[in-house]
Amino acid sequence: MDVCDPNEVFTAGDYLRFGRAALNEIAERGKLPIITGGTGFYLRALFDGLAEGPARDEALRTRLAVREARRAGSLHRLLRRFDPVTAARIHPNDVPKVMRALEICLTARRPATEVFAAGKEPLEGFQSLVLGLFPNRDDLYARLEARLEIMFTEGIVEETASILARGYPDTAKPFESIGYKQALQVLKGELNRTEALYYARRDTRNYAKRQMTWFRKERGIEIITGFGDDPAVLESAATRVEEFLAATMATS
Fold first, then answer.
1. Alpha-carbon gap, residue 243 to 238, rounded angstroms
2. Rg (the chain; Cα; Å)
3. Which of 108, 190, 199, 208 qualifies as a cystine partner to 185, CB 3.0-4.6 A?
4. What confidence tens digit (pLDDT) does each residue in 222-231 have?
């Protein structure tokens, strides 16, 4: 947010560079960096580094997008043929990641797994404590659905219209995200607001489910059951942070 314009592509590699620069700047001021968010791949890139993959090939991406539009799931099936290891790690519905992996396979002429494994530079100079909040799934879905309703009630359709009015194309990357995507469909007359809210809620639930699956498999994560506004969760997290900092100071 507030780092680039809506028509600029922002990748995990960009997050890695901006994020590490921010971590070092915060540490140089004698402060403790705290990273929050829910995108596991970006967090992994920040901690573990990313291999220097091939540059984006817009012509290839266009051809792949056309193929996927004609037959949903075809890109993931193609990726399973070229690189079954990477395909197993990416959900078939996560088309952007599937497309990038295929782009790497086809451009580098070798499996993306091999490209990803080469030349990674992990984060240095920091010790990390990773805490994951895992609330009850039904309660989480209820909160997500309420939040989506607030987004539509308080003007996401109007906000989308204002972005378009500033001259940004409806093909800009942010319009692919949940909420903006459905708001754009309302403006195009493809959905009414009730339908848009339904699909935004459905897609958000599916996304949350994939996030929880990802983080349950992530190494080193310490799971705390509940929401961040639960006093018991806050106390548990604060206690764990204090223990971690004390142990870090004792060994430094």
1. 9
2. 20
3. 190
4. 999 999 999 9
How far, in Å, are 77, 108, 192, 218 from residue 112 at the CA level? 15, 8, 40, 20
Q: CB–CB of 67/99 below 8 Å?
A: no
Residue found under tokens 């906000």: 159
Its CATH class, for the domain covering 12-127, is mainly alpha
Alpha carbon distances (Å) from 155 to 97, 149, 160, 162, 179? 30, 10, 9, 10, 11
Tally Cβ neighbours within 10 Å of residue 194: 9
> Phi and psi at residue 132, in whole multiples of 5°?
-120, 125
Q: Are 223 and 135 in contact (CB under 8 A)?
A: no
Q: How many Å apart are CA 200 and CA 97, to the nearest integer?
A: 20
Q: Cβ(78)–Cβ(102) under 8 Å?
A: yes
pTM value? 0.75
- Among residues of the chain, what percentage have pLDDT more than 70? 99
Mean pLDDT of 218-244: 95
Range of weakest confidence among 35-39, 88-92, 194-198: 35-39
- Cα separation, 144 vs 135, in Å, equals 12
Q: Which residues of 125-154 are buried (b: 16+ CB within 10 A; e: fewer)?
A: eeeebebbbebeeeebbeebbeebeebbee
Q: Which residues of the chain does CATH 1.10.287.890 include? A: 129-252
CB 173 within 8 A of CB 164: no
What is 129-252's CATH topology? Answer: Helix Hairpins (1.10.287)
Place of tokens 């088309």: 95
